[in-house]
Structures are given as structure tokens and as C-alpha cells.
Amino acid sequence: MERLPPDVVLDILSRLPVTTLVQSKLVCRAWRGIIQGSLLVNKHLSHMAENDPGIIFQSHWPVQNQYYFMDFNEGKKILKNISVSTNDNADLVGSCNGLLCFFNSSGIHICNPLTNDSIELPKLSRNPGEATSLEFGFSPTTKEYKLVEIVYKRKRPRVDPQVAASNTFQAEVRVLTLGGSGWRSLGKVPYRFMEQPSQVMVNGRLHWITQPGYNNTDTKFISFDLTSEQFQEVPKPDCGSSKKFFYELLVLQSHLSAATSDVGGGLEIWVMKEYNKKESWTKEYNIEGYLPKELRRLNARRPFPTSIFQAICSFKNGEILLEHKSKALVLYDPVHDSYKDLMIEGAPNWFKIVVHVGSLISI
Fold first, then answer.
1. Cα–Cα distance measured from residue 363 to residue 357, given in angstroms and rounded to the nearest whole number
2. What is the CB neighbour count within 10 angstroms for residue 310?
């Protein structure tokens, strides 16, 4: 490779899997310098983002703290055990640029599971009677990684029914910038967010759906800009039916997307083609009920609803990865309106999964 121009070498290396590059650092000092350099790290992340994403499995049963990674770009779907040095019962917050964030009572742990780089951060200062939601993201403008903590009171105070519903949902917002001096309070916001299976970050903004209030059953889409540290309402799509409600936000092909369901169990997925433009919302998928084969044998003695799916991610071939009750994965083909149970050897029986793009990012 010494005879090749540097830009050609960089382009070749940027297309290799992370695990291959990590092993290649041992070849010689020159290779280690190239692989750890910012030019390759950034170029490699850009190429990986163009590929199909992978997924991280987290399982606490029957063994605590089991983590696996599966790359959908590989021909054969192989589950790889990865080592994550967290304490017992750590919650997997999410993935950002190849970094995973965990937290538990002892602190916050951020690591790159494919390079084994890691860092411990100050634990959350939770007071009695408080419930905490944590998000992890990256500002492409300032190049900073940030943690955003939303703090709620466990019990809602009694209020005058004439008081506006927004006033009954006061949450404190705290932010920690990696490399900064500590947690900062941004004050309170009049929102209470639905619990999400995974964080939703688009255009350097985190996103949530609000819970309905006492006097208002409507929900809102709210974003938090990781650069300006400001909250903003994002326009929702008009789904055309009062019986449908949005219960999940996700990212499909880098676009903000929303899943809605009705009383019949049907699942629609809307995609915002141009960020923050209400008219750009398009209904891309209409998914009917389906029960994975793995759960059918259990259905006789403990019935499962046929379509309580969570949409996880989409692939370049147009298929959607769906998760059912933290127990089964299904690939949905919208062209042929068909389902394929994803059987993965060695997969845990009960799991949480997050979308993950492997990278060389160090902390």
C-alpha cells in the first residue's frame, strides 16, 4: 500500500468493517497512525452511515448484561457477542455515531463497543420522588456530544381543573456536555414525554412525543436542538382519522418518521421528507396484523395481539425491521406486502434493541 496515493489508501480503508480496522492497527505504527487519524475516522463514519445499519441486542435474562451486535451488511446474519464493562442492570440509553450510552444508579457509561474505548461520567443527581429520562446525542455544528436529562416528579400535583393542562406537566431539563465541567440546568419545560424504545435524533435534534394532558388529549412532536439547547414543536402529519394516534417516533433513512395505530391494530408509518415542513409528511407504509411464528405456539395459552409492532429501522432494499413484544424480529417487504420471521442463531429470548452504526470514534 506504500505505492498507492494517500487518498486512495484512505478511501480503501474507510470501506472496511470496524473490526478489521481495529485488528489492522497492530500491523505497524504507520497503519495505527492512519487508522486512528481524524481523516479516516470521519470518512469511515460517513461511509458506514450510507450502508444498512446494524443492531445492538441488550439482554438481562437469563444472564445479566449480555450484549450482541449484528451487522446487516454481512451476507450471513451472525450475532457477535460484545464486551461492555458496565455494572449490573445498566439501562441502554441509545447509540450515536458508534458510541453507546448506559446508565444506572452508580453512574453513566459511554463506550465504543467495537474499539473498547470507554469513559465514566458523573452519576445522575436524582432526588426522592423524581423519575428521570436520559437521552444521548451529537451536535454536528459544535462537534460536541451531550446528555440530556428530563426530570419529572413521580406524582402529579393536584391542580384546579380550570388551569391549562400544560401547566401541570413541569419537567426540569439538565444537560451534560462531554468534556464540560458538569451538569447544567436549563430550567423547566411544560412537557411530559412518552417513553420511547430508542432515542430519535435527526438534524442534530432529539425528538419526543408528549403525553396528553388533563384537559387536552392531543399530543405534540417536540424537538431539542443540541446546538442552541432550545425546545421547539415539530409539525405532525394529518393522518385523517381521530381514531389513530401517534405512539412512536423513529428514524428511517435519516428522515424523521412517525408510527400510528388505530383500534383495529393496523400500523401506518409516515415519513417527513423535508425536515420541519408539515407538507412533506408522506404515508410510506401501511402494515397489517401479523403474529411471528415463534409466538404462535404461545398464543393458545396466552394470546398475543397480532400487530403490536415497533418499527426499528429500514434497509436499502426497502424492507422494514419490526420488533414484536421484545421477543421476535420480523422483516416486512412493502413491495410484496409480505413478512419474514428473522431467525437469528444465539439470539436471547427477551431483549432490547437499538439501531447501531459501527465507527472508529474514540472518546
1. 16
2. 19
Task: Give, rounded to a whole angstrom, the gap between the first and last alpha carbons of the chain.
Answer: 29
d(CA 78, CA 82): 12
* Cell numbers linked to 112: 465504543
What pLDDT is attached to residue 162? 44
What letters, b where the CB count within 10 A reaches 16 and e where it falls short, cover 256-273? bbbbbbeeeeebbbbbbe
Confidence (pLDDT) at 307: 55
Query: 348-359 in b/e burial notation, b at 16+ Cβ within 10 A?
Result: beebbbbbbbbb
pLDDT at 297: 64
Pairing of strands 91-96, 267-272: unpaired
In this prediction, residue 269 carries a pLDDT of 92
CB within 8 Å of 336: residues ≥ 6 apart:
none
CB 60 within 8 A of CB 348: no
**Which residues are registered as beta bridge partners of 144?**
139
How long a stretch of residues is the chain?
A: 363
Other CB atoms closer than 10 Å to residue 210's CB: what's the count? Answer: 19
Question: Is the CA virtual torsion 225, 228, 231, 232 positive or negative?
Answer: negative
User: CA-to-CA distance for 329 and 191, rounded, in angstroms?
Assistant: 32
Cis peptide before 62 (omega within 30 of 0): yes
CA distance 214 to 191: 12
d(CA 201, CA 130) in angstroms, rounded, equals: 25
Could you say which residues of the chain have pLDDT below 50?
Answer: 159-167
Alpha carbon distance 78, 345 (integer Å): 7
**What is the rounded CA–CA span in Å between residue 326 and residue 170?**
31
| Cα 10 to Cα 5, 29, 35, 298, 359, distances in angstroms | 9, 16, 9, 52, 15
